Amino acid sequence: MVLPFQNISGDPEQEYFADGMVEEITTAIARLPWLFVIARNSAFTYKGNAVDVKQVAQELGVRYVLEGSVRKAGNRVRITGQLIDTATSAHIWADRFDGALDDIFDLQDQVASSVAAAIEPKLRQSEIDLAVRKPTDSLNAYDLYLRALAHFNRWSDEGFAEAVALARRALAIDPSYAPAAAMVGWYRTLQYIHGWGSLSGDDIAEAILLSRQTLEAASDDPDTVWQAGYTLFLLASEASVAEAMLDRAVTLNPNAAMAWNAKGNLLALRNRPDAAIEALERARRLSPNDPNVYWNALSTAIAHLAARRFDEAIEWADRALHDQPRFITAMRVKTAAFAHLGRLDEARAELGRVLAIDPRSTIARYRAMLGSSVAPKLFELIEVGLRRAGLREE
Fold it and tell me: N or C: which end of the chain has fewer CB within 10 A?
């Protein structure tokens, strides 16, 4: 829930501004479909009173409380916010925002968007940690889903396999649980493009089927919409359907950084680098400390590669690899970029790292995986680079 922001400016005329902040932030956070958000009217019953967050949690049945303050000096305003886990009294997120009062409503929108986007990954990680600590006999579909997210963050063949298994267990408990269905498709897609696991035709068919079912059952959940759409992009080569779904996801929740990341990745792979970079920059602004920042960096590297800015592509691929050293897709981008710059020794060394992770890599296998999804000009650019670095044909 969002408590009324305290007006510590000493200016009674700013009371409406503090109240407006609560309205805007509550509305923005309520767009996150996996959160239960107490309505503004209930939160405002605490206005003007000293608040014990644990008491508030008990009275309203919430786990997290967002509180903050507004301070005005001249034409400047400072807004602070902090997110508290009421069970432990731990502060799991805090930030401040400074701006001018020339346009109050734009500032309110900016702060609300920033707060919603910033706390989403923090809340999700907090819930993941809580699920991991639970005894196994207390698991339900949502707990299994969160545990799957924790295994995904290990970023390994074994981690992805365990994540898929947990998501499928969640579906066994609740076959209509769309987030778990979308997760299976999304993780299968990542296994596929990394060469992790021996995916059968049935595995891929299941991922595609679950993604289609997800879009039918949960068309208003931005996370499931973008995951299902992206799966159909890479596993079923349905670029136009995927782009429409990603557009829908960011319309449903303009603060969904991961949806903007997916949109930027798709645009980059479809050889639209300028639009891709715009979407990816928006994702970074929304969630600058996102635990999935490596995906944003990779997609930015692909966009620069598409624009033949090879030095920038290497720089962004390195950023991705800094956070995910086993990110084989970023290694492929680096290999191709080095080759096009004529830095063949470095290209061969990077290709060696690719082959150490996926010894089965060949030009033919790469073409079979992504040739029908990546725009032809970009695919040719990557293929030529990999071939110059020495990747075998078959």
Answer: C
- Give tens-digit pLDDT for 116-144: 666 666 666 666 565 555 544 445 887 88
What's the pLDDT at 18? 61
Below-70 pLDDT ranges, the chain: 1-49, 101-139, 289
Q: Give me the pLDDT at residue 155, please.
A: 72
The domain 185-389 belongs to what CATH superfamily?
Answer: Tetratricopeptide repeat domain (1.25.40.10)
pLDDT on residue 44 = 64
pLDDT, position 77: 77
pLDDT of residue 136: 44
Distance CA 352, CA 334 (A): 12
**What pLDDT does residue 17 have?**
54
Query: Where in the chain are all domains bearing CATH 1.25.40.10?
Result: 185-389
- Say how far apart CA 24 and CA 336 lie, in whole Å: 45
Tell me where in the chain the CATH 3.40.50 domain(s) lie.
6-133
- pLDDT value for 343: 98
Q: Identify the CATH number of the domain defined by range 6-133.
A: 3.40.50
Q: What is the pLDDT of residue 138?
A: 42
End-to-end CA distance of the chain, in Å? 57
